[in-house]
Amino acid sequence: xxxxxxxxxxxxxxxxxxxxxxxxxxxxxxxxxxxxxxxxxxxxxxxxxxxxxxxxxxxxxxxxxxxxxxxxxxxxxxxxxxxxxxxxxxxxxxxxxxxxxxxxxxxxxxxxxxxxxxxxxxxxxxxxxxxxxxxxxxxxxxxxxxxxxxxxxxxxxxxxxxxxxxxxxxxxxxxxxxxxxxxxxxxxxxxxxxxxxxxxxxxxxxxxxxxxxxxxxxxxxxxxxxxxxxxxxxxxxxxxxxxxxxxxxxxxxxxxxxxxxxxxxxxxxxxxxxxxxxxxxxxxxxxxxxxxxxxxxxxxxxxxxxxxxxxxxxxxxxxxxxxxxxxxxxxxxxxxxxxxxxxxxxxxxxxxxxxxxxxxxxxxxxxxxxxxxxxxxxxxxxxxxxxxxxxxxxxxxxxxxxxxxxxxxxxxxxxxxxxxxxxxxxxxxxxxxxxxxxxxxxxxxxxxxxxxxxxxxxxxxxxxxxxxxxxxxxxxxxxxxxxxxxxxxxxxxxxxxxxxxxxxxxxxxxxxxxxxxxxxxxxxxxxxxxxxxxxxxxxxxxxxxxxxxxxxxxxxxxxxxxxxxxxxxxxxxxxxxxxxxxxxxxxxxxx
Length: 591
Fold this sequence. Notes:
Oligomer: single chain
Largest sheet: 7 strands, mixed
């Protein structure tokens, strides 16, 4: 028996692929050769016989990697700086005017971080740790009051347009599934720094090893409370219920923001706050912010995203499809195997609306799959209807839901005669309003059996039960989208059935509409400084700026932006890449 001290579990996952004879847990283990030989010298021959083989045995790079959470990383940077450059440091400050690269006084740089989602929280954390005077401005409420506002929406259909499933502390991901999966590298130094920081603030440490880590809303709420208390102890001023209505600009540079009470739609309580820089970390639903930026001639570009419907099945059906005989071991999240999920993608032929253009392939895929979850309302305006999915940590509900979405781009906006950088927003609004009308108002969601959707016929009542608590109404969802989008959805669902036999079921219910899969806008910025290419002093980051999608990638982007802003004010002297690794390219959409 080899000594366990030489081994550490890096990742644990459950492999239930159909190509296997039986499902199994898969462990990725790190072996410390030096420790092993110290504890068991006879293992030398065993080590010598190990031959590298990709996917089975690989040598780990000896390059420096992030070993702690983000707070520890920043403190290490400060310690190294103090050792290499002793003496009292004088930061370069502009205090609302001038150039940040001109010498200023001893006061700290005043930085506004707009948005309390993952990117804003992590940017604020980095900047506060480096000694900046940070003010975090969030239009929504803290998680405690936000929870009460969401309760009023779900129980009494009272929508607070500033505190809801999209707006508030933690961002849209707080009342979602709390997924921590990302396509930017599960074991990368940057992702590990984010995950270790979440553990520091209360996340279970199994997120560091689980192949598909997730938290759930019930775990995120206390975590965010701890995060907030730490920021406040570090000197961060947090303003909840405060909406940024405009930027203060002098000589083509941001020198502050105009804010008002979020409940004041007339902006009669507005006041001007001066800052040396503004980190813009709003979410993808801050449409009024995009409109304000457009009026300020800040460069914006339309970005591809996806729209579609959310399908819901009984969770036991998905367990049976994925696990067969092992389905009985799930036990609503308390069993030996995890609650079953799925991820599907297909590319279907897209017949061009303009016959002069050649047809192309359109991507159709599942998005934000919530095992053991529920369908929730993510509207921020009572005249619009859009939905998402959420789960609690145990994923114990009797339903499984996922969005089935189709990629859309400028050519789709053109079909509706929508032009300009905000065309994607108007595209979203169009179908959200259609869905609201189809549901009959009062946040009732239009639904259709998946079998009836494929046959283009209205579903007869009674309908299969739905987890959506504000009410559903039978409707022909073929009338919602343009024909080419509907046809793409229909084709892809038929293909998904081949991969997941039983997916097309009388018990499966499609809900409309899912439109806010990612930001429809990108705010161009420098790859090096993260500063807007069209307005000095403005640093667009995170999902709302078009550079992330999901909790982890948004947090990573916020972390990089925090280092970049700190570097621009000489709070950090060194290479960002050498500290936390390489950032994703500005144009990359791999979230």
